[in-house]
Write a structure and sequence with these properties.
The chain is an alpha+beta fold. It has five domains: 3-42 and 107-226, Distorted Sandwich (Calcium-transporting ATPase, cytoplasmic transduction domain A); 48-101, no CATH class; 288-299 and 674-879, Calcium-transporting ATPase, transmembrane domain, CATH 1.20.1110; 308-332 and 534-664, 3-Layer(aba) Sandwich (Rossmann fold), CATH 3.40.50; 337-529, Calcium-transporting ATPase, cytoplasmic domain N (3-Layer(aba) Sandwich). The chain contains 33 helices and 27 strands. Strands 10, 11, 12, 15, 16, 17, 18, 19, 20 and 21 form a ten-stranded mixed β-sheet that branches. Helix 30 (789-810) runs parallel beside helix 33. The longest helix has 41 residues, at 666-706. The relative contact order is 0.09. Belongs to the cation transport ATPase (P-type) (TC 3.A.3) family. Type IIA subfamily. It is a multi-pass membrane protein. Residues 2-76 form the Cation-transporting P-type ATPase N-terminal domain. It is found in: Cell membrane. One of its GO terms (cellular component) is plasma membrane.
Length: 881
């Protein structure tokens, strides 16, 4: 039901309540029993054991478990134990991550005020908020949290801060009058107060129309529960990789079995050999290395002022194509600030933002007019904002608009905020219908002056004179037209415009408001706005270069949102602006068609945000959603990556997100995107390295079987290569620095596989050459006949290891080893040197020789090994393929 459309009497009738007596205790208890407590219900959580075993449903994990069973069956106990440890480590990481992921509803429940002031049986009483029922008459005052959704019955200067629900930065004045309109957004329902919002000023009375999960916050909580969790691109790609490896494993098994049987070997023996090779295809260390690299990426992100709650989210940022950003507090500072003044027919720019430091600059490049100090002084006097001690030093307490004027006055001259002997003797409070506020001040000579501050369009008809150069002059049509033009200029820039006027009065005139607020002398205009963040414009431009579209989604008015978007160069001239009302008449299919050309969505609801994100996803986009309010939480969860604000963000938004910005800075996202892109490229590098190395191992074994030769490598040697030679350099590749043009490249296609952009060819071709040179080295050493089989295997072992260690430098660049400085990654240098030293230990240290079936090699042997092992990298570096 649209409660805002009903009158107060109709609302009371619908809720079976009475404004004078409230509900009886008996009826209240009946309703409480029938409809339940006024609290948000939590989704039933799975037991820890179920959550743990869910981690084993991942395709790659299942592949590794199969590999573990096969290895154990073949007697390769070390292989089986190592693989099982890796699987358990990854599963435990996923388990602990998931146990922390669903706290959103618990945080939402904490928002309810524990005590409510309600009218029961004609008496005001305090009760626990969870006992509030529909029909209860509730009294609220400044500083209170709204305990349920209320239809306002009466209020005195009642304003409610609803930014967490609506995205609007300013408190909303609440009235009791019915509003006749269809599909009204939350921000425009001025006779409603919603659960979880905060009373900023005044006091009022309302009747409860919804409790618990039926409130607007409850509906948002329901959206969070129902919102599907999206798999990240990295999870999809690794799942695809696992399937590819299974297919390859089955194909290799069949090939080896058939080839061996064809050569006359016993079928059972060949089946076991084929299974051994198939197991070797799977890089056991890949999941662990991915986890470690992502974890190290998380640490780097913290240095860039971003906290990652989910490891795979780091990579997801790198494939982002659209960033849906909230306006208030994300692209803007969420602090109403005086940015322009108009006095003595001159425009004055104010810099410095919401701080006591800044400059006042005349746009005409002339001296500042004398009337500037007077405008700011009287604007401050007609205000209830005051400086006071806070936890972080001196802060301003009061309405955001009045706080902005006080801050500007302090910035101009500290003495302006002092009353200097003036005493307030009367006040006509601001009223949304009157759109103005008036105070009467008395000086030390008992003279009185009225100061009127309010909307210029209302005050223009009440002005009789205008102060120019300290003298009052008649206010004619020319002067009026000049001021109207200035008001329009400020409105076009999304400024909230305040006019300040004065009038000498007699003390007795205060009883007559009409006389008090007419025949005024105009002092000037004050232009106020929530300014864009200084660094946001540059960040958006960087996003454009990176092929990322920025979309503003806000609960603010369309004109304000459009002006901010234009100031940030967020939208092109042909870009569209859609409002929440526009979205209600668009079907999902129509929205999908229009969302590509739309850059600003204004006056939207939480459901609208969900539709927008899902429409973009339907068009194939990877969507990052930023936000700080409760209203952002469902969209944060359903997006590919949710980004919340660490400073101004609500706990609900943080729990629903994967990334938290410590400085609430949009530009931090750009750094996170760069980090994400680099991490994915590094993952591709070590996948290329690991799989080409494994391919070489498999092929050298396959060649030997086909030509009826002994195995060139023993299982323990292959295990050593996979865990030591492969592991350390692969991990070092994950720490490689990004290429200079990384942020000038378009985002990766959503459906791009791991082997895209020629990676599959690189893996097969390099692996083939690595396998060939290793087989040639073994064949030459074995057929020479002057040495033992152990010698031939040691030659093959050394050639395979060195070929991989040289090849790792080729993996740093998609084109050629010569395109990047070979010593640009110090971690890789140390990893390669460590692997070389470990290889020497296995070859020359006598305690390890019998374990790995190796013998000592001569300098001549090593020269041949290095020559052969360099061939794969050099061949493809010169061809650049």
């Amino acid at each position: 039901m649209n409660w805002y459309e009903l009158t107060t009497q109709e609302t009371l009738k619908q809720t079976n309540s009475n404004a004078q007596t409230g509900l009886s205790e008996t009826i209240a208890q009946q309703r409480l029993k029938k409809y339940g407590e006024n609290q948000l219900t939590e989704q039933k959580q799975s037991g820890w054991l179920i959550v743990f075993f869910k981690q084993f449903q991942d395709f790659m994990v299942m592949v590794l478990l199969v590999a573990t069973c096969i290895a154990a069956y073949l007697g390769e106990v070390i292989d089986a134990v190592v693989i099982l440890i890796i699987v358990l480590i990854n599963s435990l990481l996923g388990f602990f991550q998931e146990r922390k992921a669903e706290k959103s509803l618990a945080k939402l429940r904490e928002m309810a005020t524990p005590i409510a002031h309600v009218l029961r049986d004609g008496k005001w009483t305090n009760i626990p908020s969870q006992e509030v029922v529909v029909g209860d008459i509730v009294k609220v005052k400044s500083g209170d949290r709204i305990v349920a959704d209320l239809r306002i019955l009466s209020g005195v200067q009642l304003t409610v801060e609803e930014s967490a629900l609506t995205g609007e930065s300013l408190p909303v004045e609440k009235k009791s009058d019915a509003i006749k309109a269809d599909q009204l957004s939350l921000g425009d329902q001025h006779n409603m107060a919603f659960m979880g919002s905060l009373v900023s000023t005044g006091h009022g009375v309302g009747v409860v129309v919804a409790t618990g999960m039926q409130t607007m916050v409850g509906q948002i909580a329901d959206l969070i529960v129902k919102a599907p969790t999206q798999k990240t691109p990295l999870e999809k790609r690794l799942q695809h990789l696992g399937k590819v490896l299974i297919v390859i494993s089955i194909a290799l098994t069949a090939l080896v079995v058939l080839a061996g049987v064809w050569r006359g070997h016993p079928p059972y023996q060949m089946f076991l050999a084929g299974i051994s090779l198939a197991v070797a295809v799977i890089p056991e260390g890949l999941p662990a290395i991915v986890t470690v690299v992502l974890s190290l990426g998380v640490q780097r992100m913290i240095k860039r002022k971003a906290i990652v709650r989910k490891l795979s989210a780091v990579e997801t940022l790198g494939s982002t194509t659209v960033i849906c950003s909230d306006k208030t507090g994300t692209l803007t500072e969420n602090k109403m600030t005086v940015v322009e003044l108009y006095v003595d027919q001159q425009s004055i720019d104010v810099s410095g933002g919401y701080s006591v430091s800044g400059q006042f600059t005349n746009k005409n490049k002339a001296a500042l007019p004398n009337g500037l100090a007077k405008l700011l002084s009287y604007g401050t006097l007609c205000s209830n904002a005051r400086w006071q001690e806070g936890t972080d030093g001196h802060v301003i307490d009061g309405d955001p608009t009045e706080a902005a004027i006080l801050m500007a006055a302090t910035k101009f001259d500290q003495n302006l905020v002092e009353r200097n002997g003036l005493r307030r003797i009367y006040e006509v409070p601001f009223d949304s219908n009157r759109k103005r506020m008036t105070v009467v001040m008395q000086d030390e000579h008992q003279q009185h002056i009225a100061i009127v501050k309010g909307a210029p369009d209302i005050l223009l008809d009440r002005i009789r004179s205008i102060e120019l150069s300290g003298r009052a002059q008649p206010f004619d049509q020319v002067q009026r037209k000049r001021i109207e033009d200035q008001i329009q200029k400020m409105a076009n820039q999304a400024y909230r415009t305040i006019a300040v006027c004065i009038k000498p009065v007699r003390a007795s005139v205060t009883a007559n408001h009409e006389e008090l607020e007419s025949g005024l002398t105009f002092l000037g205009l004050i232009g106020i706005m929530d300014p864009p963040r200084a660094e946001a414009k540059q960040a958006i431009e960087q996003c454009k270069k990176a092929g990322i579209k920025t979309v503003m989604i806000t609960g603010d008015h369309a004109s304000t949102a459009r002006a901010i978007a234009q100031q940030l160069d967020l939208m092109p001239r042909s870009g569209k602006v859609l409002t929440g009302h526009d979205l209600t008449v668009l079907s999902d299919e129509e929205l999908i068609n229009q969302v590509e050309e739309t850059y600003v969505f204004a006056r939207v609801t939480p459901k609208d945000k969900l539709r927008i994100v899902q429409a973009l996803q339907q068009n194939g986009h990877v969507v990052a959603m930023t936000g700080d309010g409760i209203n952002d939480a469902p969209a944060l969860k359903v997006s590919d990556i949710g980004i919340s604000m660490g400073v101004t963000g609500t706990d609900v938004a943080k729990e629903a997100s994967e990334l938290i910005l410590l400085d609430d800075n949009f530009s931090t996202i750009v750094g996170a995107v760069e980090e994400g892109r680099n991490i994915y490229e590094n993952i591709r590098k070590f996948i290329r390295y690991l799989l080409s190395a494994n391919t070489g191992e498999i092929l050298v074994m396959l060649f030997a079987m086909v030509f009826a030769l002994p195995l060139p490598l023993l299982p323990v040697q292959i295990l050593w290569v996979n865990l030591v030679t492969d592991g350390l350099p692969a991990l070092a590749l994950g720490l490689d620095k990004s290429e200079k043009d990384l942020m000038e490249q378009p985002p990766r296609p959503v459906k791009e596989g791991v082997f895209a952009r020629g990676l599959g060819f690189k893996i097969i071709s390099r692996g083939l050459l690595i396998g060939m040179v290793t087989f040639v080295a073994f064949l030459f050493a074995y057929q020479n006949g002057q040495q033992s089989l152990e010698y031939a295997r040691t030659i093959a072992f050394g050639t395979l290891v060195m070929a991989q260690l040289i090849h790792v430098f080729d993996c740093r660049n998609p084109r050629s080893i010569f395109d990047r400085h070979p010593f640009g990654n110090k971690y890789l240098i140390m990893a390669v040197l460590s692997s070389v030293l470990l290889l020497c230990a296995v070859v020359y240290w006598s305690p390890l020789q019998p374990l790995f079936y190796t013998v000592s090699l001569s300098l001549k042997d090593w020269l041949g090994i290095i020559l052969l092992s360099s061939i794969p990298t050099l061949v493809f570096s010169f061809t650049k393929r």
